[in-house]
Amino acid sequence: MGMVSTNEFRKRLRIMVDGQPCMIVDNEFVKPGKGQAFNRVRIKNLINGRVIERTYKSGDTAEEADITNTTMQFLYTNGEAYTFMDTKSYEQVEIPKDAMDGAEKWLLENTECDISFWGDKPISVTPPIFMNLVITYTEPAVKGDTANSVTKKATVETGAEINVPLFLDQGMKVKIDTRTGEYVERAK
Amino acid sequence: MNDPLRKPLSLLEVARFRAASLVRARDFFTERGVLEVETPLLSGGVSLDVHLDFFSARFHPEGWREGAGSGDFYLQTSPEPHLKRLLCQGFPDLFQITKAFRNGEAGLRHNPEFTLVEWYRRDWELKAMADETLDFCRLIAGPRPVIQYHWEEAFRTMLGVDPLHTDRQTLLSRPEILENGLSSRDFPADADIFDFLMSHGVEPKLDPSVYTLIDQFPISQAAQSQAHPQHPGLALRFEIFSGGLEIGNGYQELIDASEYRRRFEDYRQARKALQKPCPKADESLLNLLEQPGLPACSGVAVGFDRLIMLALGLKSIRQALLFPWGEN
């Protein structure tokens, strides 16, 4: 991959830091009136998700991280790895559970996910922002209580557990925001 | 003014505040008998500084043709050389409110084209200059308590280190440097280490609710200030901050023409080592500094846009400008 200079630093740029692929979250130019210029950047490690601060001398370069994103369809899991298929090339990849980082609890067969690769190595799986899933278990509904503020636990068809309003019942479908794991509304 | 719930100011409100502040600034100097002057923005000479980069332009006396034109001209990084030329020629106390241009500087606190307020007081010592600068800051950005540190004291208080009595290797092992993977080669001069520890260690710890006055800089950071008469290792220079925001930089001005020449040559050599363009030293200034010479004076440059940021509680200089960089 190419080298990028600090003057090309911008949010979401992927660079290598200490041998790890990272994404720039924030980039600030710091320069005392009479002194050298620096770029103070906040970077997110794309493997472990940790955000750190790092200062570069302005004009220095960093190696661009070889990150590619591909849309892939979830096929099946054996419990330890998750198999996805590239919808264009039909190529299949196995993603170990630790790289799934919780994404697995929203996946149904054929769900399309955005998968990031660092070189050949899958490093993150992003499910669709909203998933409509059927409630497979919850306490019986409380009729007439349509308030959203009081909730109860519910298990959905993928096995994930979420909080839902009291009026919902087993067999109903709900829309869930997978970024927060929160119930959004009842789905048809 | 820093109420986070406050509605963001409209561009027109910012423009009105800037206009009123310019009037207040001019009244401040006029009442004190300081003469307003205008100096060139575009000149064949430019203030030499290791870490100040300029914009250059060419003059085409016979019509514009690609690759032709005579000489290099520079957008001024500061009005200092021209104001000093006037002082050498016997002008009284002077001020200028002007645009200044610094290449490569764009960020939350920097715009490549910005407004400077610079003034000089004849026969004034540094202390009086610092006091007047604080008065000016209060006038534009409102009253705040003042906390004062000597430069070395600021390092001891904020970082627990006395940089002037600590060897280079120990300073280079500071966490601020190591954690960023920086090393000796990133800091050609000791002054570069001091600047880094100042901007990444000291400044973030300064109190944003006060004005911090820092003086007694080491002589390696003298810029164009004179050495302390009793302590030649120190320079008669001050800076004013609010939090980590650098607002003003003042000197009891260096008088000795040969010392000016020597410092300019040092800056040229340092620029050469950094592979930066090295314009000739400004002979129009140096000749006047030699004869008739600069009268005893102190001077200061204050970032006007930064005072506006402070006054209005703005996080970015872009919010203080009607046409920030990238939208100009």
Task: Give an account of the 3D structure.
Chain A has 188 residues and is mostly beta strands. Chain A has 3 domains: 3-63, Roll (SH3 type barrels), CATH 2.30.30.30; 67-126, OB fold (Dihydrolipoamide Acetyltransferase, E2P) (Beta Barrel); 130-187, OB fold (Dihydrolipoamide Acetyltransferase, E2P) (Beta Barrel). In chain A, 2% of the residues lie in helices and 54% in strands. Chain A contains 1 helix and 16 strands. In chain A, a hairpin with a 7-residue loop joins β3 (20-30) and β4. Chain A is elongated and about 70 Å long. Chain B contains 10 helices and 11 strands. Chain B has an 8-stranded mixed β-sheet with strand order 1-5-6-11-10-9-8-7, with helices on both faces. By secondary structure, chain B is an alpha+beta fold. In chain B, α2 runs parallel beside α9, α4 packs across α7 (190-202) and α8 (257-273) packs antiparallel against α9. Chain B has helices at 11-31, 80-88, 126-141, 151-159, 168-172, 175-178, 190-202, 257-273, 283-293, 304-312; strands at residues 35-36, 42-43, 55-59, 70-75, 94-101, 113-122, 146-150, 211-218, 234-242, 245-252, 297-303. Chains A and B meet through β3 and β5 of A and α7 of B.
Notable characteristics:
heterodimer; A: 188 residues; SH3 type barrels; OB fold (Dihydrolipoamide Acetyltransferase, E2P); 3 domains; 5-stranded antiparallel sheet; B: alpha+beta; 8-stranded mixed sheet; 10 helices
Query: If you compute it from the alpha carbons, what radius of gyration of chain A comes out, rounded to the nearest whole angstrom?
Result: 21 Å
The N- to C-terminal Cα distance of chain B equals 27 Å
* Tally of separate helices of chain A: 1
The main β sheet of chain B shows up as:
8 strands, mixed
How many domains is the backbone of chain B divided into? 1
CATH topology of chain B: BirA Bifunctional Protein, domain 2
Spans of chain A of 5+ residues with little confidence (pLDDT < 50)?
A: none
Order of strands, main sheet of chain B, comes to: 1-5-6-11-10-9-8-7
**Which of globular, elongated, flat, extended, rod-shaped describes the shape of chain A?**
elongated
Oligomer: heterodimer
**Biggest interface, residues from each chain:** A-B, 19 and 30 residues
